[in-house]
Amino acid sequence: KENYMISPTSYKAALCLAAAGANGQTQDELLKAMGFQSVDEMNAWYSMVYNETVDFNDSLEAEKESIAEIQSDPDMADYYTVDGEPDGAFRLVNSIWANEDGNPEFTQEYIELAKEMYSAPATTVPGADLADAVNSWVSDATDGLINSITNDMSSVDLALVNALYLRAGWVDSFPEGGTVDDDFTTIDSETVTKSYMCKQDDTYYYEGENG
Fold first, then answer.
1. What is the pLDDT of residues 11-33, one digit of tens each?
2. Hey, CA dihedral for 33, 36, 42, 48, is it positive or negative?
């Protein structure tokens, strides 16, 4: 009865950590579930996504430097209008946690792989402290926007955690005047009035053999 937003990229990134530590049939099934033919293809996908975050933040810093240069040069300031400093953030971060009281144990090879390939710490924590450790990591990764995801992880053997943090403006902003009120049917089949974003536009889409 609550609103949720699901990030397929986050699911996929977390499963990459699992597939990287698996082998044989288990690894094959994980790769198939994610739509990859091989570990190399999986790693190439993750690198592509991660590099998007790097490019975003590099572009943001370059824009900040450009504006700072304009503001420090009176001649340039006469020709350019600067409306505030560029703001934004884009981060994709992962971590994997093992319950010290359970059976999982990370090999040194996996710890190094997770760190080098996915920038993911692989940490072993006592079960009683696991929830606090994960919640603290999530809070830091999202700048406090998500400060808790669980109250108790003492019975969890292994946890794959991903945070996708994006703060940016829309390429095409939605006009406030386009909002209209209309009926919405809840999960209990009740009809309530909600605000809808309504817009007509030309949009590209993909059409394949299965629709």
1. 999 999 999 999 999 999 999 99
2. negative
- Predicted TM-score (pTM) of the model is 0.73
Return the ∠ at Cα 189 (arms to 183 and 191), rounded to 5°: 25
Task: Report how far residue 211's alpha carbon sits from residue 20's, in angstroms, rounded to the nearest whole number.
Answer: 33
Amino acid at 48: M
User: Which residue would you say has higher pLDDT here, 186 or 211?
Assistant: 186
**Phi and psi (nearest 5°) for 67?**
-70, -40
Segment holding 192, helix H or strand E: strand 191-197
Instruction: State whether the Cα torsion 48-53-59-62 is positive or negative.
Output: negative
SS percent in the chain: helix, strand, coil, step 5: 45, 20, 40
Cβ(130)–Cβ(123) below 8 Å: no
